Amino acid sequence: MSGFDELVPRLRAFAAAREWEPFHTPRNLAMALSGEVGELVAELQWLSDKEIREQLDGGALRERVADEVADVLLYLVRFADVCGLDLAAEAHAKIDRNEHRFPPLEANPSA
Amino acid sequence: MSGFDELVPRLRAFAAAREWEPFHTPRNLAMALSGEVGELVAELQWLSDKEIREQLDGGALRERVADEVADVLLYLVRFADVCGLDLAAEAHAKIDRNEHRFPPLEANPSA
Amino acid sequence: MSGFDELVPRLRAFAAAREWEPFHTPRNLAMALSGEVGELVAELQWLSDKEIREQLDGGALRERVADEVADVLLYLVRFADVCGLDLAAEAHAKIDRNEHRFPPLEANPSA
Amino acid sequence: MSGFDELVPRLRAFAAAREWEPFHTPRNLAMALSGEVGELVAELQWLSDKEIREQLDGGALRERVADEVADVLLYLVRFADVCGLDLAAEAHAKIDRNEHRFPPLEANPSA
């Protein structure tokens, strides 16, 4: 069990086994998501781009950032699930829209 | 192309075709992620849980929330990619840790 | 020293005495602000409105929320200062604009 | 009316005149605060420190950032008010605690 598609059923089972479903409203999960993104940003806030690069190559920062991105994804997957949204499909649909909104450089007629 | 695994190569190609790679530093992408989560939370901020439920069943709120979760996932996927992290694997590893940290109710010896 | 106006000089002196000024760029301070707001939201994320009310009347939640709002204000004051903005004046100017944008109920001609 | 202390009564009157008080719960205001900070961070997300400095000296970025810091302060003041917290006093108390937690460089015995 290591793919993205398994996250939805795993998180459903996790919440059910702990009777956490009543707490997993869209509002609460959006707030939890906001809190986790705050923690992720806080990991980087006093570091230069160069320091971030170096410390992401290994060690404590890498582990802390990996832990935070996991938390963000878990709350995002759970939020989308309780909202009845197919997260990966919405993301692909958004890239489709972005491709029209921001034409690639090759499409520049003067190129 | 609609699965989660295709998001990483699609976003790499998208950034490359627009020469946006220099902007896609971990810091910048973490900030962009924070901005998108703020927009998601803002969609729900004045609504009751009941109103959110009703309006998520269809209509404008559903579309706006779907658009925002897509943006959040896209920046999260891109952030993890430029950090060299396997997002789905980190999420599963985090659930593993959470299963130890928060034992399910069945595990309660007095039950 | 307990008024709002003293916060700007106190925070300048605090940063100078620790040689933290090079870290206090607008970007870094905006990120720090984002992190602190995430912590504030996280304090409330699993509680009902009723529980928040009760727990704000005293005890640990009140102290934690007080600590977080202080952190948010400190980073906001410092951010505005390094940006050369007069925070209180900007806030009053924004209320002025909001008064035009959202007319009060008394102004409704049909009332 | 341009000082910090006038913000609390102005915002109370503003909410009362529009009958917005029922919406101004701690949760809702914390979410609104989170959304505004997201907008502030988003203003800076693709700019270098040098670009931010230059564009803050005048022009559109300065105005947008001034507008966002005002929004953040307004929701923070309102949040603290409905929670029964004295925002400026909490901020000073936090600086007091930080002065103990992070001694200034002068206090270094080896200096």
Would you spell out the secondary-structure blueprint of this structure?
The structure is a homotetramer of 111-residue chains.
Chain A (H helix, E strand, L loop, with lengths): L6 H11 L8 H19 L4 H8 L3 H23 L4 H15 L10
Written overview of the protein:
Four copies of one chain form a homotetramer. Chain A is mainly α and 111 residues long. Chain A has one domain (3-101): Helix Hairpins. Helices cover 68% and strands 0% of the residues of chain A. Chain A contains five helices and no strands. In chain A, helix 1 (7-17) packs across helix 4 (60-82). The N and C termini of chain A lie far apart (47 Å). The mean pLDDT of chain A is 94. Chains A, B, C, D: One of its GO terms (biological process) is nucleoside triphosphate catabolic process. Chains A, B, C, D: InterPro entries: DCTPP (IPR025984). Chains A, B, C, D: One of its GO terms (molecular function) is nucleoside triphosphate diphosphatase activity.
Biggest interface goes to: A-B, 62 and 62 residues
- Elements of chain A, N to C (H/E): HHHHH
Low-confidence segments of chain A = none
Mean pLDDT of chain A: 94
Assign the CATH superfamily of chain A: MazG-like
Task: Characterize the biggest β-sheet of chain A.
Answer: none
The Rg value of chain A, from CA coordinates, equals: 18 Å
Tell me the CATH architecture of chain A: Orthogonal Bundle
Number of DSSP strands of chain A?
Answer: 0
- CATH topology annotation of chain A: Helix Hairpins
What characteristic shape of chain A results from the CA principal axes? globular
End-to-end span of chain A in angstroms?
47 Å
CATH class of chain A: Mainly Alpha
